[in-house]
Amino acid sequence: MKFPDPPVFQNDSNSTWEDWQVDMEVKLGSETTLTEREKMGCILSRPGKNSRALIQIGYLAGKYATAQDMMQTLALAYNDPYKKAEARALYRSLCMGEQERFTLSRPKSGA
Questions:
Q1: Cα 95 vs. chain centroid, distance in angstroms?
Q2: What is the number of domains present in the chain?
Q3: What is the Cβ-side half-sphere exposure of residue 46, based on CA atoms within 13 angstroms?
Q4: Helices 17-30, 36-45: inter-axial angle, 10-degree rounding
Q5: In 3-state terms, what secondary structure has residue 98?
Q6: Model confidence at 43, in pLDDT bands (50, 70, 90)?
Q7: Residue 69: domain span
């Protein structure tokens, strides 16, 4: 099965790094006939200007042996090291307001 190319990664509100990373890894994993160089070309074709600059210099200098090396460079730049701590803090801050009511809804029977 051939998967479509991921959208161009711009690092904006339309596409998160995690979404793009998963899409790209699925795409590259599904293309079993691609050589490593072709996979690197695929990665180079999908990031926006700033993201591409991060990997293009290393690519031209022969820094990357595999497409995974390129993805690792992008991951180091875009992964949020505080994501888990921020999610935990947000979870701990959840509480009901004084005017909110907790109502239990019962499942409807006889469908």
A1: 30
A2: 1
A3: 25
A4: 150
A5: coil
A6: very high
A7: 36-79
